[in-house]
Structure formats: C-alpha cells, structure tokens
Amino acid sequence: MPSNQENLLFIVLISCVATIGGFLFGFDSGVINGTVDGLRNAFNSDSMGTGFNVASMLLGCAIGAFTAGRLADKFGRKSLLVLAAVFFIVSAWGSGVAGSSASFIFFRILGGLAVGAASVMAPAYISEIAPARIRGRLATIQQIAIIFGLFSAFVSNYFLADIAGASTAEFWLGFEAWRWMFWIELVPAVLFLVLLFMIPESPRYLVMNNKNDQALDVLKRLYGELQAKETFSSITQSLAEDGHQPKLSDLVDKTTAKIRPIVWVGIGLATFQQLVGINVVFYYGAVLWQAVGFSEGDALLINIISGAVSIAACVLVVYLIDKIGRKPFLMIGSIGMTITLSLMVYAFLNSKVGISGDLEMGDYGTLALVAANAYVFSFNLSWGPVMWVMLGEMFPNQIRGSGLAVAGLAQWGSNFAITMTFPIMLAGIGLAGAYGFYSICALISIFFVAKFVHETKGRALEDMQG
User: Fold this and answer.
1) Distance between CA atoms of 352 and 85, rounded to whole angstroms?
2) pLDDT tens track for 325-347
3) What is the mean pLDDT of the chain?
4) What is the CA radius of gyration of the chain?
5) Cα separations (Å) of 130 from 83, 167, 209, 459?
C-alpha cells in the first residue's frame, strides 16, 4: 500500500524525465534509416563503407553500456544521464555537419555511447527511486519511449524528405534534408539535458557514497519522513555487509571464487533478447519484406502496423506487470515468439523462388505478415520491456552498476553480432534458415526462464540476492 506521504506525482514526473533517454535511444537508432542515400552520396562510400557508417553506432552502444554502469557507481546515476544528454547533443550536431565518413563515424560512435549509457542508466535510475509496487510499470514506460522515439524518427525523416523532395535534396539554409534529419534530434536532446538538472540523484547512490544527509532528503521528497527513514535503514544495512565502494570484482563470489549466478542470469536475459532476432526485423525490415515479394510501399505500411502493435503490447505490460509479475510475461513471450517465428519459417519454406530471385509467397505471404506482427507483439509484450525492468532491479545494491555494465555489454554485443550476421545468413541458408535459428533461440529461452529467472515483483531492491 502507498504511504500517505508518498509523493507519487513527483516520482512519476522524474521517471518520465529519465525515459526521455529512452526516447533519444529510439530516435538515434531510427534516424539513420532515412539518411543512407545521403551518406552514400556525400561521402562517395561503397556498400561496405555505407554499412559501417550505419552500424558504427552499435560499437559505441556496447562501450557506453559497459562503462556507464561502472562510472555511475563512481559519479552517480543522474551524472551519467547528464553526460549522455551532452553526447546526444554533440552527436546530433556533428552527424549533420560531418564532411567525411571518418568524422561521421566519430560522431555516430559518440551517439552510440549515449544510447548505451541511457539504455542501462534510465531503467536503473527508475528502479532506484520508484516504490516496489509500481516499479515495473514505471520502468516499462522506458520501452514505450524507445518505440515512440523510433516512430518519431521515421515520421520526421519522412516529412523532411517529402518536403525537400528527397533526402539528398537541398533544404533549409542550403543544407541537404538528410543533415536536418540528425539536427531535429537536438530539440529533445536539449530538453533532456535541461530537465535532468531538475531531478534528484538516486538515493541508493548517495548512500553508497556516504552522502547520507542528501540521501535522506531525497527519500523524504519521494516517500515522506517515516517511510524515508525505513528505506534509508534498509539501504545502509544492505550495503554494510560489503563495507566498501562497489567495484567490478564484486561480481565474483568471494566464497566460491566464481562469478555470481545472478550475473550469468543477467547476461542470459540480455543475450536472449537479441538472439530471438528482433533487430533483424528492425534494421532489415525493408530488405526482408521486399525479399518476400512486398513492394516498398507495402513495407512502409508494415512498419507502421508493427509500430502500432508494439506500442499496444507495451501499454498492456505497463498495466499488468506489477500485478502478474515479470517471469510470466517472459514465459508468454518466449512461447509466443517460438510459435510465430516457426510459422514464418514454414511460410518461407513453402515459397517459390521466382526468375528474378525473389520469393513468390502467394497465400503464404499473408501468413508471414500475420506471424511477423504477432511475433513483434509477443516480443514487446515480454522481452522488449521486461528484460530492461529485470536488469534494473534484479541485482543487489552493491553490484547493480557492475551487473548492468556486464549485461549491457552482452546486450549490445549480441545486437551487433545478430545485425552483422543476418546478411551472411541470408546469402548462405536463406530466410528460412535464419529465422529457423531465431526460433530455436526463442525455444531455448523458454527453458532458460523456467529454470534460472526468479520473480522480482513487489520485492524491495534491498531484498535482492546475488
């Protein structure tokens, strides 16, 4: 039950500020899709060079996710979000003014550092300021923000290209439209930076760094005086057992000299979220649907439908996650993705290759389309938002930063591997083979969740065991 003095409006508002990082995560990931022709023309790059221009951000994401978790233990959750906001601003400006592939890649990697940091720090910050009873739904808003950021980037790119005539055409102030696609991001990035100065630091971080008076002040603003003292006592007690500043070596159990099991669970959650192939649908959606015979216009419509389906699924999670729990959603999602991916494989296997080399799917095209959207719904009902919720709350206070660092590195490393191997798989074993691999990974994830994942619904962060 909520405390009578709990400042729920304040908690919701500062959580929403943190999720702007998720919006920028989505926008920065999606904006590149409309700029590929502009990059190719501006830098005279071949397909491999253009591909690296597009994928370079993922390298920054992996580094950003790993370093942010550790730096946040030293400098604070809020401080790392502020740094991410600055990097978003510099990356958006620099990507638009870049005059060469080298400078463009530099600014995109900088943006990747911001995306990686925001991806782990926003859910961590929310989990550390939110009451246990609503922590899941507040953290899930992050996923809605990510999807809305992607959608906003697609809409912005579409209208800028439409008004200019093409992404490569001259637009305002004599600059090409594709450059403005990046500069549009400056608006939410600057807003994020300004609003971050209006939210408090995480009380868990403040206690870790012996800033007890500040921690108590923040807790009182969040929960009221009585609950603040109880929470403060729980935090100090949970940290007293270790008696030192958090460090990466805390991930190793001192008794067994082995990495703590909870760390392997975090790595598993982060990796399986990518091994089910969701980013193949995102990064290569147009390639996929054109390969199975849909026109470019049809592919655009499918993207819009998928976006609407994603948001609907996440809204459902927001409403139910603190009632049903995290583990049931992961199980439902894994089963749903196994079935829908298998149906897509079945549709691809029963299609014929035409004279042009494209798949001629006939009635199986409808099956593939329905299965793909059901797959997207299953993912966004489960692994999309719930994985981030779990990572933000499953680690004990002492190892939360380090645990997030390692899990974030695994998540973005898997993202990069899946993204880079899909074209190779497409050429080697075809769509059916590639999606067959993703369906097997989804099947394995069912057993992983059943055996290794433990429910965190309603538990205080101080009760999490490592």
Assistant:
1) 49
2) 889 999 999 999 999 999 988 98
3) 81
4) 22
5) 22, 42, 20, 12
Q: Which residues pair with 259 in a beta bridge?
A: 252
Distance CA 296, CA 286 (A): 7
Question: Residues of the chain with pLDDT > 70: what percent?
Answer: 81
Buried b / exposed e over 428-447, threshold 16 CB at 10 Å, is eebbbebbbbbbbbbbbbbe
pLDDT digits 0-9 by tens, 151-167? 788 777 777 777 777 66
pTM: 0.78
Q: Is the pLDDT of residue 241 over 50?
A: yes
Decide: 95 and 112 in contact? Cβ < 8 Å.
no
**Sign of the C-alpha dihedral computed for residues 378, 380, 381 and 387 taken in this order:** positive
| Integer Cα distance of 101 and 43 in angstroms | 6
Identify the CA nearest to 21 among candidates 141, 156, 166, 109: 141
170 backbone dihedrals φ, ψ, rounded to 5°: -70, 140
Burial class (CB in 10 A: 0-12, 13-18, 19+), 264: middle
DSSP 253-287: -TTT-SB-HHHHHHHHHHHHHHHT-HHHHHHTHHH
Render pLDDT for 167-219 as a digit per residue (tens, 0 to 9). Answer: 666 777 767 777 888 898 899 999 999 999 999 998 888 888 888 889 889 88
Q: Is 67 helix (H, G, I), strand (E, B) or coil?
A: helix
Helix (H, G, I), strand (E, B) or coil at 98: coil
Give the C-alpha separation, 271 to 249, whole Å.
Answer: 22
